[in-house]
Structures are given as structure tokens and as C-alpha cells.
Prior knowledge:
Layout: H1 7-18, H2 24-28, H3 35-46, H4 49-61, H5 65-80, H6 84-92, H7 100-110, H8 113-117, H9 124-137, H10 140-148, E1 164-165, E2 168-169, H11 179-189, H12 194-216, E3 222-224, E4 229-231, H13 234-245, H14 252-260, H15 265-283
Antiparallel strand pairs: 1-2, 3-4
Amino acid sequence: MHATNTPHDIEAFGALRTGFELPPLARLEPIRPSEDDARALRAYREATAVELYSRYAPLAEAGDPHAQYELSRLYLLCIISPTDETLAVYEKDPRHNAKLEQHRKNHARCTGFREATGSSNDLDQPMREWLVKASESGSPIARFELEVADNRNEQGNYAQSDATAGGRTRSERRAPSPHLVYDTLAYAAEQDDPRVRHLSILQAMFYFIWFVENERYLGDVNFDRAAGHVKRPPLSEAWRLLGCASGANCSLADRLESLERSYYAYEIDEIVATTLDLHAAIQQSDWSRLGYPQAEGRAPITLSGVKP
């Protein structure tokens, strides 16, 4: 005897089948990190640079490529973090109010790092050295950064998304092969570390922003800065939404609220659907659906195929 579906069951099944009956936040929930992964990502963000150095340094010295990469990131973090004197200036200058809280957090995280590492005032050289070691040891994440970096501002600085970097506009940057990103995504899929997976999504997102959107889609972006509105094609917003969803420190609710100021509900539905498709494409290693140029027809770059 077959069980009879209630109207509520049928309604629920229909919502799951189409997805569009669910609110955008609920539709994105399945691609969020698990509770354990989110906890691990938050723990990383809350740890000091000295604590993280103590964790990663022995592994890096033993040749672990991701630990070597993490050391390069720690040096970069403490390069861009304000010193005591600089923070004091920021505290008094209202022009820095918007980012003052982040400056304070970075300053607190890097307190004691130079002393703990014996680096004195020179953090640039060890940052570069560990990034090169990580690349040579087999980290696609480090290899990607070395390929796109031609100055300190670009080396691993994902957060830099303004129009220029190191005196070069985005359109003037030499775009690396998208297969560097595919290697990173494939590598991350085999790792247990949620931070590796998060970093791989961020690299894929910023590759699109830096090297694809600027060439293909920027002319379609509708800016109304006075009203605080920015409208981009669905694929552009989907990559940004996926980057937010992949971490534990980005509020999806806030991100969706900001989209609501610029898009109609049906447009947000399309952006969310595209975000879910990007996530599925990455899970299935279907790089042709990422929106990159030259997505097919080339063999992936091998570890020896990129010179640091």
C-alpha cells in the first residue's frame, strides 16, 4: 500500500524541485560550509598571526605546500597591517573611519609577529620566498598567485579589486591561463581543509573579476553611484555571491539585501540560479560552465608548466 502525499508534502516537494518558491537565502543554504567547516574557518580568522605561525611553520619546514602558502599569507597580512604609529594616525583621521575596525583587527592579529619570526622590518622577502617554495612544492593556489603577481600589491592580495594595481589597470594585466584556476579547484576538491576549498573559490571568483568581467562584461555594468546602485550581468553577481557563500565570515543575508537595492526579484532569482549552477559546475569539474574564455580545447597546465 502506497503512502498518500498530503497537500503540504506536495507543496514542499514542488518548492524543492523548482527552488524558486524558496527565498533566495534558503536556496543558497545547501552550498554553505558545514558547521564544522564554518567553525574551522572562523577559528582561522580569529587566531593571531603568531598562533598561526606556530601552527604552520613546522609543517612548512617539513615541505607541506599549503603550510608554506599559509606562511606567505601571514607575512602579507602583517605587511599590510598598520604599525602602532600608523594606527594612531588612522584613529585621528576621519577619512579612515570606514575601514578603521578592520585596521584595528589586523593590527591586533599581527602584534608580536615580527618578533616571533625574527623578521625585523623586512617581511617582503620571506613572504616571496615561502610563496615560491609553496609553488615549487605543488600548491596550485601559490602557483596562481605567482603568475598574476608583478608587484607586492598583487601578490596574493585578493581583496584588491579597485580599478588599478601597482600602476597597471586591470585590462593591462596579463591574464594567466584559466587552467591555473581549474588546477586549483581540482586540487581543493581533494583536500579536507575547508580553507583550501574557500581559497580556491576566491581565486576563481577574482580571476573572473580581474580578467574576464573587465574584458567581456564591464560595458554592461550600470553604475548609479549617487543612488548607491550597481547592476552587473547575472554571471558577474553570481561569482560574487558564490565567493560570499563559500566562506564563514561573509553575511549572505547582507549580500542579498544589497542586491535587492539594485535588482528586481526575478533578476535576483536568476543570479541565485546562476550561483547554484557555478557551484554544481565546480563540483562536477565542468569548467566550460564557469564563463571563462578558452574553457575547452587545452590540456591542464602541469605543475612544471609554470615558472615562479
